[in-house]
Hints:
Elements: H1 13-38, H2 40-59, E1 72-81, H3 88-104, E2 111-122, E3 127-140, H4 150-162, E4 169-176, E5 185-191, H5 194-209, E6 214-219, E7 223-232, H6 234-239, H7 244-255, E8 258-265, E9 268-274, H8 284-289, E10 291-293, E11 299-301, E12 306-314, E13 319-320, E14 323-332, H9 339-353, E15 361-364, H10 366-397, H11 402-407, H12 409-424, H13 430-459, H14 464-495, H15 504-533, H16 535-545
Antiparallel strand pairs: 1-3, 1-4, 2-3, 5-14, 5-15, 6-14, 7-12, 8-9, 10-11, 13-14
Helix pairs in contact: 1-14, 2-12, 2-15, 3-4, 10-13, 12-13, 12-15, 13-14, 13-15, 14-15
Amino acid sequence: VLAAKVGFAKKSRIQRAREWFTHRIQLFYVRMLIKALRRPFLALPLAVLPFIAAVGALGQGYIKMDFFASDPMRLFYVNVEMPPATPVARTMELVAKVEDQVRKHVNEGEVREMAAYAGQMFTQTEPRIGEHYGQILVGLNPKADSLREVDEMIEAMRADVTSVVGPVRISFLRMAGGPPVAKPISIKVRGDDYQELRQVTDELIAIMQTNSDFIDIEDDAARGRYELELELNTDAINRAGLNPVDVRRTLRLLVDGEIVASMRDQGEKLDVRVRALPESRPTLERLLSYRMPLAGGGSIPLSELVEQERRQSLGNIRHYNFRRAITLEADLVEGGLDTVAANAYVLERWSAIEAQYPNIDLDFSGELDDIQESLDSIAVLFLFGVGLMYMILGTQFRSYWQPLMILATVPMAFTGVVLGLILTQNPLSLFTLYGVVALAGIAVNAAIVLISAANSRLEAGMSLMHATLYAARRRVIPIMITTLTTIAGLFSLAAGLGGDSLIWGPVATSIVWGLGFSSVLTLFVIPLLYRISMRGTAKRIAQQRK
Length: 546
């Protein structure tokens, strides 16, 4: 037999401090939990109140909704639209004047490149081609503390840029990261008569212009060139003793010239047309004042032989759901109305004049339509995830009720998300909801370990109260460690310590605040629910042991 000695090393100062600290936490928590367990029907309503307050805050609009919030790219466009039939040289001349105003408002080191061009204009949906379109691309240097944000630069130059005389419309186009989305305001005005469509669109534009929250208002109805439509007045022509064919030929000569010969070039037939030089072509007034000679002597002006109508042609004819449509779009000022409130504002004022246009209807699509579609898909995915968790937990715990207790932590997490959005002033966005869906799977972990430990102690012969307190005391430190490490990992992103992000910041914020708030409530609510719901099970286990 060999002698053996066992020696226990003296605990270090750090270990003694850690044990003292964890013991104090456990002691404080158990004392608070005992007070709650003694008054369960008072403590549970108090735990539900924050959730009711969160729903109320969301419904009352305390949280700004920017559903497709995204980080702006460091570039923007200045769109210039001239009257139809403007020569490209004139368009470029005005674009250069707009560019001068833009350059006046940029500081040294802000701009990386700037390009101005005419003949085309890029938009969020499609490029527009035409001599009366112009655009200025402004590329900015990477973000730094000394450089302004894109929106700040645009608002600083907006007044001077839009005051340039000549263009019919000057607007700004921001580019943003993330998935492509429509503008916050995108209204399709649908009808059968174009003039009525144009009138309603102009009235809606006037409604938006009365509210400073709407900016960069534009529609996709391209204006065509002005045209003169002439129709022969056969009665007047007959009275003058002229032949309609001669009148028609005279008009063609004055406008398009006449083919006088033909030739072949590499086997291809080419017509030779005689026309006047561009600078000598008649204006509309000179054209109509041209006098045609009469057979009996004298002459008669063309204006007395034709019926004329001057109008502006259509640059395009768009349809939506089998009816003519004009799409009206606008951006919103940051910090003003959100997408839902802005669309409601327009709809309310449209309702006041809707009766005047019975053949017109509005389709509020755009970002509002994207929001509804995204909410529908997220709701389906969320319910599917919750249902899957219920099936897994039901299989694990062999109970129908205990998985529901565990899933009660999801509303607690939602309460924390709402509180976090209010305090951090982050918007409720699509990415925030992604964080909520992810949070639903994280927040249940604390409840799982609590109920699992309590079930084990209950089956080992402890009383219901003893098993509940024992499980809570043993699991409070692991729950706190898990929660704090998760929060610590996401805190810098949620707080924007490495730079703000409208895409990933709300995701981290929802998880950090939701997990922190739900973990605290879980430590009290789950033991309360467990003690209330497991009384029958505890009695049955006790009877089986007897």
